[in-house]
From TrEMBL:
Organism: Escallonia herrerae
Ranges of residues in domain Malectin-like: 52-419
Coiled-coil zones: none
Keywords: ATP-binding, Glycoprotein, Kinase, Membrane, Nucleotide-binding, Serine/threonine-protein kinase, Signal, Transferase, Transmembrane, Transmembrane helix
Protein name: Malectin-like domain-containing protein
Membrane topology: Single-pass type I membrane protein
Subcellular localization: Membrane
GO cellular component, as recorded: membrane
Transmembrane segments: 12-33
Any one Gene Ontology molecular-function term assigned to this protein's record: ATP binding
UniProt superkingdom: Eukaryota
């Protein structure tokens, strides 16, 4: 084992040298393509950058300048007993043109091949630089003569976090994309695909990329009780549920230094008639010294916004509202991006920001905070699971009742809704990586139900929970069976 490790480190300098050369080519390309950034643009070179197009016989070049390794080239990361692959020439026949306004077409080649696992299989990656990493997983159930991928049920987990539990992709007309932000504290990370009993697992592509430390601070404003500062964000694993370019089109990975995708907001606005798109040329966005950077969000996000449609004519008496359905058993980190691209002078725009009906910021005055117009600004909020009543996160901006020098208006430029891991260390369900089930969450849910419907309904709820618990016990047993078949295999490095 130690010898194999040594072998691996000997092969490193060469591969990282090639990697750095390739990377600099891509960065140059990126500059040449240009996205109108200000001269203060921040280059970003990820220390760890694993890109794998699973099941693909050849490496894959994307239009964002990145190359995904083929399946054979990435065999050294994977320990598995088997070699079951699926691929098609192209998936363009299954993705309708409408889905490309939500999914970047540049990533379609990543979905056209997959690796299938009939037993527990594990990728292991060396980590050069501990800290937050972006992990992106791509799933699409391709046809295979012996495996019907729409019937695959499986769990995906790292050494400490459950990412997906009893997961399946039953709809073969949709692409499935998952993005995580994990704080890797050791010098390696494993990614295990564990089929549920009698089933199998698959994955189409994997990305594991270092994220800049400055992407998240350790604290945010808590919007639900206890109101105040929430500390300790670095102890949580994240899953990005929504990342939205408000008032503008999709931004594909090519337009973002961390290869993120930003979706348009048209399906999330509850009263689009009340909103109006505004935009300015991206190159007038002026990143501040300290604060938001192009790594926080590209200028394409800050150069478009939604504002109130009848601002300037009447006295608008409504909020702009975005509603996103979420799993209500988790807490969420909500990042809102603002940039005053609507005012003609400083201190003209004041508005309130609400999250799930609770005051996030009262009388937000962006230009005073940033000392300028067209200067990016962002705020992070933590929304506790206990404050999610309707299975949704609702973000609102609306006029504040304070004294205004100009007509009331409110804007939003970008929006991220990020799921936070629960006390079981899971982002999906109540099981921890070791397969034990968390009971505290079940307890708090009992309380919520009892409060809402009173004792009579509460009794029924308890009955239901007992029934549910019995069901869960079965599930737990199944998970334990699976866990006992889980085999750790020594790392195989190719020198
Ligand atoms: C795969 O399974 C799904 C769901 O059970 C079923 O609808 C579909 O017909 C199956 N496909 C094939 C090719 O057997
Ligand atoms: C990751 O976790 C370690 C240990 O808890 C902590 O010291 C570090 O600040 C965290 N890093 C980030 C980027 O959150
Ligand atoms: C704003 O622009 C986006 C994308 O360009 C579009 O989908 C949306 O319908 C527009 N919204 C309004 C209110 O015009
Ligand atoms: C905006 O939303 C907040 C929170 O949901 C609510 O309290 C407020 O009354 C709304 N404002 C208007 C003008 O509807
Ligand atoms: C949510 O609230 C519960 C109960 O007050 C608390 O135990 C938990 O730590 C909170 N979680 C977050 C992420 O705020
Ligand atoms: C809850 O959801 C229902 C149905 O989707 C909707 O009619 C209602 O307005 C929502 N309530 C809140 C407080 O968001």
């Amino acid at each position: 084992m130690a010898e194999q490790k040594h072998g691996a480190s000997r092969s490193r300098p060469v591969s990282s040298f090639i990697f750095i050369c390739l990377l600099s080519v891509f960065i140059n390309l990126d500059v040449a393509v240009g996205d109108g950034s200000s001269p203060s643009m921040v280059q970003y070179t990820p220390a760890d950058n694993y890109l794998i197009n699973c099941g693909s016989p050849d490496s894959t070049f994307l239009d964002d300048g990145r190359t995904f390794k083929s399946d054979p080239q990435s065999a050294s990361f994977l320990s598995t007993e088997e070699n079951i692959l699926a691929s098609v020439d192209s998936i363009s026949n299954v993705v309708s043109s409408s889905s490309s306004s939500y999914f970047p077409s540049s990533s379609f080649p990543l979905y056209s091949s997959a690796r299938i696992f009939s037993g527990v299989s594990m990728y292991r990656f060396l980590i050069f630089r501990p800290g937050r990493h972006l992990l992106r997983l791509y799933f699409y159930p391709l046809p295979h003569p012996s495996y019907n991928l729409t019937r695959a049920f499986f769990t995906v987990k790292t050494d400490s976090i459950v990412l997906l539990h009893d997961f399946s992709v039953e709809d073969d007309t949709r692409l499935m994309f998952k993005e995580y932000l994990l704080n890797v504290t050791s010098d390696k990370i494993s990614l295990a695909f564990a089929p549920m009993r009698d089933s199998f697992a698959f994955v189409n592509a994997i990305e594991l990329v270092s994220a800049p430390d400055a992407l998240f601070s350790d604290s945010a404003s808590a919007v639900s009780s206890p109101v105040g500062v929430f500390n300790g964000l670095s102890n949580y694993a994240f899953e990005v549920s929504y990342r939205v370019n408000v008032g503008g089109p999709i931004i594909p990975p090519k337009g973002d230094r961390l290869w993120r995708t930003w979706q348009p907001d048209d399906q999330l606005m509850t009263f689009p008639q009340g909103a109006k798109n505004v935009s300015v040329p991206p190159d007038i966005i002026n990143y501040p010294e300290g604060g938001a950077t192009p790594l926080i969000a590209p200028n394409l996000v800050y150069s478009t916004a939604s504002e109130m449609a009848d601002s300037g004519t009447a006295n608008p008496n409504f909020n702009l509202t975005w509603t996103m359905s979420v799993d209500p058993s988790f807490s969420y980190l909500i990042r809102l991006h603002f940039c005053d691209i609507v005012s003609v002078s400083l201190n003209d725009l004041y508005f309130n920001v609400y999250v799930n009906g609770m005051m996030g910021v009262s009388g937000l005055d962006i230009s005073t905070l940033t000392s300028g117009l067209a200067v990016p600004y962002y705020r992070d909020f933590v929304l506790n699971a206990s404050a999610i009543s309707n299975g949704s996160v609702m973000v609102q901006v609306g006029p504040s009742s304070g004294i205004q020098s100009s007509l009331p208006n409110a804007i939003l430029n970008g929006l991220e809704v990020i799921k936070m891991s629960n006390s079981a260390g899971s982002l999906d369900g109540l099981f921890s990586v070791s397969g034990t089930q968390q009971n505290t969450l079940l307890g708090s849910r009992t309380m919520k139900i009892a409060e809402a419907f009173g004792l009579a309904v509460g009794m029924t709820a308890i009955f239901l929970l007992v029934a549910q618990a019995a069901e869960r016990l079965g599930e737990a047993r199944q998970f334990l069976d699976m866990a006992s078949s889980f085999q750790f295999q020594p790392l195989q490095f190719h020198v």
